[in-house]
């Protein structure tokens, strides 16, 4: 419905402009949320027969009023006294009234706001400090209010007294408040249809809390609260309840017994709770249940009678749990079920009739389990199945007739399994199949009849297998196929006309195979092919007829092959192609007119080849080309005006060639090139006027060439913004060398061997913002060297031989923000820098500095980064940083024995990052620092390669805000008890490469936010149990120690662990329960230890989550005890890293019984 604009406002749904005066348009995020969530009652819902109109601007100057199916009144940040008056000025009923951002001093919604109104159908009070509603606060709305929302406020209880008289209230939302309890009879006398209590802190619901709503309440939302159990007694006899949402709580048991009498309940959502088992008849009290969601719980057990009393069940979501097995009769009493999601569990077996006799089943998701095989009758009498997802399992075998009873199957996902063969009869009955994914298996060949009956296929994934041949007829009948993925196989041979029948094919990927020649494998008639990828093969040539009939191709990848010649005609029919990749080949010659018909080509990549000559007709026809990459070839000859036809060219890269002279006839015709790169091209000379035809050039890079002179006006490019001349042996630079570049903004003259700067060199460069003179031979800068560079913000003078007096040269650059003086013998911080009031970053590393004078930084109040590393400092006196805004400081590689006291006295609330590595530290904090002094803002401390031997709690208590602490490569042999207890925000702790032998649990206590712990290369003899504080730890590296065993419970408290590295130890024993309670563990490295026997039971707790397991480099024994382990490894090939390096040692056993 169109929005009627009444005054000062364009409707926000029609893209109106911002309001003028006091009228403020809703912020974008509020508008988006409300437009999606609000139900707008019709005007009749407020009061029938009254025309919907807004008062004039003069009558209502503060609230926003417009009509949208009724009068809408929005009052953001409007005083409540004015709200009452403006509500009363609306001549008719209000469909929607919104009060938000109410004065924070108002904690109770007062009476009298609505007594003058003609009725309000929907009222929203939100994003305010309201803690309660006065008993008469809603007076005047008794017979009109249908929707009431009080959200994102601070209600501590349901405002029962204020609600009692609202006889027409049907929808109540109290979302995102501070309600902790629902008391008895709190909704009595109401006839609510929906009740939203999401996002509170409710932990207790009285048995009589919902009394009075038995016959009216249809939807109840209790999501994101603190419930430990379902309020079963309160829900009893809720005869009208259809939807119950209680996700994101702490419910431990699903219990809706038969006497719950929830006959109308159709949808129950208990996702993201703590349910561990589903007992017999757990939801018997909801016989009409159609949808049950238990996603992301901890369910390990499901009774075979769990859903016996729910014959109407249609959708069941049990994904992301820990279910290992289901009885064959689990769904025996659910004939109407349509969708079952059991993804991300630990199922091993699905045979025995579990999914049989489900005539209405349409979608079955079994991805990310450990299913080993699919056998005959698995889906018997479940003929309606349309989507079957078996990705990311351990399937080695699919019986050939297992899918024959699924005639409606249109999506079959079998990727990331262990299939070595697909029977030619497997898919014969699946004539409706449209999407088939078999990628990431071990398929060695495809039978000619494998897909003969699957003529409806549109998408087929066969990548990442071991296919060696593509036969002529294997895809012959797939005439509707649109996507075919064959990349990352071992394909050597593609039969002629292998894809010629695929008239609708749009994407064909053959990259990263072993193809040496490509015959005419596509249809020669016009096809729909738009993307062709043949990168990373062994092609040596391209057949002239290879792409015949491929006029629809948009993108072609032929890079990373061995192609030596590109012959005329091969791309003759690619008139619509926009992108062509030929980089990383062996191309020596490109015949003339090869690209002449590619009139729509935008990007051409020819880099990393051996092309020697660019001829006059090499790029004929490429009138639409925007980007041309010719870098890293062997180009020595560019014929006259070779680029003349590239009339839209924007970017040209000729780097890494041998263009000794940039000649005037290289660019005769005017071209719109904006970026030209000639890096490392051996350029020794640029002829005068050679680039004049490139009047639009903005970026020119000539770094690492052989230019020795910048002659007067050597370039006349008025639009050039960025010039890079780094790494040229410039000997002749004079005051007019840059005169032809008036708009230059960045100039790099680093590593050019400059011994001095000519006077007035930058006189014509008044727009220069960034200048690098690093790595030259400058010994002195005149005071006027940078005169006129008033806009300069970045200056790099590092690695020259400049003395202290040269610092005066920068005084004429008042806007300088970044200055680098590192590698110059200034011996101290230049006092002259005090004049640079805008300086933000100063780098003065390796300047032979022996002291910091207290007044050096006094005037640099805006300085945020200071690097004075690699100097000779033994101390930094107090007062050195006084008044500074420093956030990042590097004192690395000096001669300090502790953190300077100046940090605590001068920078207590500013410094965020400190690097003090490479100093001979003997302690972190000195004795003169007061006990209560701290660097409260410091988040990152790098203190590596020091002489620290002990970590104490007293020292770290001065650094309470640390989030990252690195103490690696020290001499630390002891961590005091409670050393880290004050670091409650620490997320990353690196203690690697030290001398720790023990690390008892109390040493790590207090690290409740720790995410990454690195203990590699110490001398730890055992891994003690991590403390309870380790609940957020995700990465643990204890590799390269001297551990000999992994005990039960060592990782018990680290349930969030995702990566554990225990490689390169001396582990011989791993307890069966070592990895229990690690549901997220994805990477486990046990390589290079001394494990001889590893029982599969050790790995079973992490079997579902594990993505990478490293066991190579152990001494696994070839005994009958190891048979189960080898069987487990065989069934989980994708999870095992370097499986070919996994061997077992003698004694060999010839006969073992596999149970």
From TrEMBL:
The keyword Repeat applies. Keywords: Leucine-rich repeat, Repeat. It comes from the Eukaryota. This is Chaoptin. It comes from Portunus trituberculatus.
